[in-house]
């Protein structure tokens, strides 16, 4: 009948879990559902620990497949709790190390705090004080850094300080335990500390009182808190009844003391929790039986102690051979990872050096090429400039020679015009002084036509002068707008380097008039005495 009842309860649990796994409520997200499934699997441990472990392993694989590292770590932590309560510390440690590696890889510092703290507590079980405090301090410092960054409330320090309190209580350092418990009360906040409720702190205070001879104050506190723990955390009853038994034994109430110890063992068996703690309870019973002169029961309790001690704590135990020679897998993995990072860094630096070397070579070649190109371009441009300058000089020289030739032609033309005009003047003078058979009127007409032809010849000369000395008159008009047409004509004749006599003949004025005209021209041009008028005209245009 009992067997069928147990099977029925197991099936009911399985159906409940399947319902939770498949349920998708409108207001529940997939994220929260994952944590609900984890909680349901862990709760199954109280009656069916093997089923709980199997379900948690399945959830771990599922979360890893979906790359949900946080939930995968939580599954590992729950597995570590299950194995720890069953006193299988080897498996518990393995899951904690695996969780720590995942948390470190995912940089989940809030989870690393929990893992460091739990590893420290396991070391405390074996009285390895320095190791235990080392991990607890690591967890506490990491927690403080998260609080400083605003990623965690200061009330979270309550759990950290409580770990120190329980550790120092187990080590028999009650003054330090009380100091840390005071810190727990200082940082405790009801609205924040949901995983650590006030009854935990009050119960821990009662435990310290029992150990320090204040059992009378502790007993009513413990008994008042028993219903709350039975409802909220049944596994904790194993510890509570053990301490309550200590309190009654210290007060000489052996009947209640024995009953409390037996209750502690019963809760351990029924909840499959704190199996290792049963060793201490049997040891306490053996001492009490010895005090009562019940040596047979004392002997039986000691045999139970010896058997359980070999199982859970002896180095020959299959559970503890790997545990007592703990290999710091996390440190080894971190060292291997650090070594790999160093090797990768070295490879990266070597690659960067090669790239830098090739880059320097390319830059050097390009720089050298640019410099060489610049030098060649400079010499090419200088040579080109020299050639162009030489060509310009030759062109200017040719233009100057051509200009001189044209000016000589103009001067020759002007002289011919001057001689022609002089001839006509002489002819006119002779005809006027003689009376010949030719009609005087006809000769005068002939001379007049020759003289008027001079005007046309002068216009032709002026046009040819402008063609040769392009811009000469334009520059005179621009720079010296007050010059008269006669003065501009004088400037042109001076530019041709004609003498005053030649100029006088061409302009039909006397030589003195030419000198006066040159003087007036110098004044209009504002020329100093040192400046030669002919050279000045030659430099125009």
Short précis:
This protein is mostly helical and 541 residues long. The chain has 23 helices and no strands.
Radius of gyration: 62 Å
- Count the E strands: 0
Instruction: Provide the low-confidence segments as ranges.
Output: 1-28
**In angstroms, what separates the terminal alpha carbons?**
137 Å
Structure characterization notes:
The chain has 541 residues and is mainly alpha-helical. The protein has a domain at 383-539. 80% of the residues lie in helices and 0% in strands. α10 (198-211) packs antiparallel against α11. The longest helix has 105 residues, at 329-433. It is rod-shaped. The termini are far apart.
Main features:
DNA binding; transmembrane; signal; mainly alpha; disordered N terminus; 541 residues
Per-chain topology:
Layout lengths: L1 H21 L7 H14 L5 H17 L3 H17 L3 H17 L3 H17 L3 H20 L8 H14 L3 H14 L10 H14 L3 H18 L4 H14 L3 H18 L5 H15 L3 H18 L8 H4 L4 H105 L6 H29 L3 H8 L5 H11 L4 H8 L3 H15 L7 H7 L2
Helix pairs in contact: 2-3, 2-4, 3-4, 4-5, 5-6, 5-17, 6-7, 6-8, 7-8, 8-9, 8-10, 9-10, 10-11, 10-12, 11-12, 12-13, 12-14, 13-14, 14-15, 17-18, 17-21, 20-23, 21-22
Keywords: Membrane, Signal, Transmembrane, Transmembrane helix
GO molecular function: DNA binding
Organism: Flavilitoribacter nigricans (strain ATCC 23147 / DSM 23189 / NBRC 102662 / NCIMB 1420 / SS-2)
